[in-house]
## 1
Amino acid sequence: MRTQVTIIGGGPSGLLLGQLLHGAGIDTVVLERQSKAHVLSRIRAGILETGTVALMHKAGVGQRLEKECFRHDGTVICHGEMQFGVNFSERAGKHVVVYGQTELTRDLYEARELASAKTLFNIENVTIQGADTDTPSVSYEQEGLTHTIKCDFIAGCDGFHGVSRTTIPAQLRREYEKLYPFGWLGVLSETPPVHDELIYAGSDRGFALCSMRNANLSRYYIQCSLTDQPEDWSDTAFWEELKRRIPNEYADRLVTGASIEKSIAPLRSFVSEPMRWGRLFLCGDAAHIVPPTGAKGLNSAMGDVHYLFNGFQQFYQEGDTRGIDEYSAKALARVWKAERFSWATTKLLHRFPDDSDFDRKMQQADVAFLAENSAAQTVFAQNYVGLPY
Ligand code: FAS
Ligand code: PHB
């Protein structure tokens, strides 16, 4: 088999890249380790930057998103009973939209099937050959048979646990990592959201986040111990703890219900440089991870897709390699700013077990300054709505 760009990974970054390349007449094959149903069963991100929305429209996949998303012009931030709003539109001239990653991925799969573009599911033992040559290829197993795809380029969109990043020789990779001493216990419930905007809550008991997917589907998170398992938390225990961490006006009107999904995600900051080795390009979680506090995980991946698509398009349409040659530096410049914002918001709102009383006073002063200072709110808003590509 031969194609122009082999895309390893059928998550949001692989699918959006594939859809944009298809629109530019560039042939791709997507290799996905799991089944489509498994990919679509994952509950992940909920907030899209307007840059991500624009890319979905550019790929011709923005119709349902436009109809079903919620526009959010701001968010509530609180610490104990103290609360304030940050107005994104006033401070940064932009908004964000609420539209689940699951729905975005569903739309992209539907478009790829309509385009009759090739996606191979349930594949195993993907290996990359000759990434540092002009004739790279990707081999994989499916139903016990080994196949090889010859291609011009390989996009490693296979997430943190994929094979692409570690195909780059260790001596050429520089990795930066910070592990957080807590995780997020997330619950999805078929209940109306507690507020019409998101609520980011710090408290002496730990962080909580009130989010949503639609008018009757809410997404809540509480900071939890790394030793916790989802089954350690009954629905009742989860709701009671959430109520203790948000202001009484929201706790009193919280509509609780049965969890239809309950999971724990550990928090990590991670970047692997460079994001290119020869004809292999890393994109999204394959190259970087953020704690979800700043809603930057999915949106950073989409920023990579923007740069990589433009680079491939420039190469195939003009024979110009500047876009792909500049990809890693450009993508990393934006990624590191997202890493900083995600780290800073996590530090601002979570309870760190080893913090001293002084550390906690610093944290409270940070929240108080953000509550009172318009310049601080402008910085927060500009980062949250997404820095320019
Ligand atoms: P993904 O990991 O989504 O996709 C990679 C794909 O590659 C997967 O489908 C995988 O099956 C496939 N794959 C892996 N290895 C392969 C191989 N060897 N061969 C073929 N295929 C392979 N971000 C937010 O902004 N907000 C959130 O609330 C949030 N919550 C999250 C919760 C969890 C538990 C996790 C893990 C992440 C969360 N994220 C969140 C981040 C998440 O949204 C990612 O940023 C986003 O999925 C990145 O998309 P991709 O880069 O496509 O990687
Ligand atoms: C979500 O809705 O899942 C969500 C929203 C904002 C975040 C993290 C997760 O910062």
## 2
Amino acid sequence: MEIKKGIAVSPGISIAKSLIIDSEDYRIPRRSIHPSQRVAEVQRIRNAFKDAIGELTRLEAAQDPSEGGKIKDIFAVHLRFLHDRSMRKKMTDLVHSELVTAAYAASSVLREIAQHLSKSQDAYISERAADIRDIERRLLKQLLGKRREAVEHLTEEVVIVARELSPTETAGFDRQFVKGIASDAGGRTSHAAIVARSLAIPAVVALEDLTAYVNGGDTIIVDGNRGIVIVNPDGETLRQYEQYSKEFVELEHRLDAMRQEPAITRDGTKITLLGNIEFPDEADVVLQKGGEGIGLYRTEFLYLNTETEPTEQDHYNAYAQTVRGLAGKPIVIRTVDLGADKHTQSKRFVREPNPFLGLRSIRFCLQNLTMFKTQLRAILRVSVLGNVRIMFPLITNLHELMQAKMILRDVMEDLDEESVPYNRDLPVGIMIETPSAALTAYSLAMDCDFFSIGTNDLTQYTLAVDRGNELVSMLYSSADPAVLRLIRTVTQDAHKAQIPLSICGEMASEPECVMLLLGMGVRTLSLSSPMIPEIKQIVRSVRLQDCNKVARKVLSMNSERQISAYLRNAATKILPEAF
Ligand code: PEP
Ligand code: MG
């Protein structure tokens, strides 16, 4: 039995056999083959090259020439490498001489070439190392394709074990069979963790070296409440966890039973609880869990699920389905937040040295106007179907907001010319996710209709801690005094400017933070649907005057540890069973 401690990111207990996924960036373990398998492995290398060449040729042909031909050039370089016979020969020689798998041979030959190139003094040559790593990923995708298919065609319940999962991979999991997730990398607000939570799959991340301890088919317990993963539990542990899992399900049912009760504090203040969604069919779940609308629709998932970029009609269909399902309840559609760890089809292979500080989110949209306008048209078209609002992510300064609004007006004019109906008074809001936006909130508030604080990014950018990097996850906390002071500034400025404000980062679903946020003046929280009942119960158990006291006390503290301990203590007194 092996017990590993990580970060709990999605609540619940799961017990099932492990299925290990080799992540694309993971070093392929050296596996030996029987001499009789040599011919088949060499053939697999040939097939992988053939398929990779076919895939790249199609992608190259599909490139939009208006992009300046840069992407086309990248694909052409990759194709030249793939046509180089000496590279393929090195791999097949390795299979014959060392009796290793095709995947291992491909990976080790390409890593050696990449290492060699990266040492070059010539910048052009050293940059080619990144191309070689991309080719490695592409070939491995072909060579390991069968294993990935196994994830897509599951027939029994599993716990997915991986070094790292992307949000796209996680979104593709079959909820019926994927019962738990455990990964070496990740953080509470990494996008894969957010997806796991919205799919209600218990998950623990940042387990550092879990993959070294697990073999495919091992029994795994994922304790998504305490952040623990147990490999091959003994009989007594297994029995305890089966009991614990039953009790947890009962607690969830009890909470669900009060889902239609209003979210009102004991002293009568109404709090609005909305849901965060990534896919249209989740809107129903938000309503079932007692949410009153959608406070954040992360539309970039439309790009992450397919091989081709969505058309205006694809956007329209997804939004129309969601808006109709809400029957007049509010929905905030956020324009795409691509870049960093989420990429469009055509930009998937463009590497940036610091992607979270790079061409991400609204910046990316403002440089890809065709794509941006396509989405804006669809959002405007659905605005007549319900209570639709639009929100721009990662605004860092007023100029960006003005640019985004100007483009929105351009699109409105195009629709006017075509006599396409839309809501001219559609509320336009922004996310406050950077210290610069928080510190200039009042002037931003003069030019928009509402704020939503994205505490996931606000925490990352204020504390200079990558939200998905397990090596620094102990430094990542939205309860840090610096983050809290920025939240308070934004809340006060929104109040002064008389515009509505909500919190839509993961902080809104942390039971310990509810009293503090209410005490700081927040009245709308948007969170992943499985957490709505629990947060509602906390809202219904507190008095606003106590929340105000908690906020005053916390804002006078200077240490994150002191604040977290104080918040936990205050929340435990209110609702012991939630902790
Ligand atoms: C945030 O940053 O808090 C947020 C809600 O946006 P996302 O998690 O999609 O980056
Ligand atoms: Mg964000």
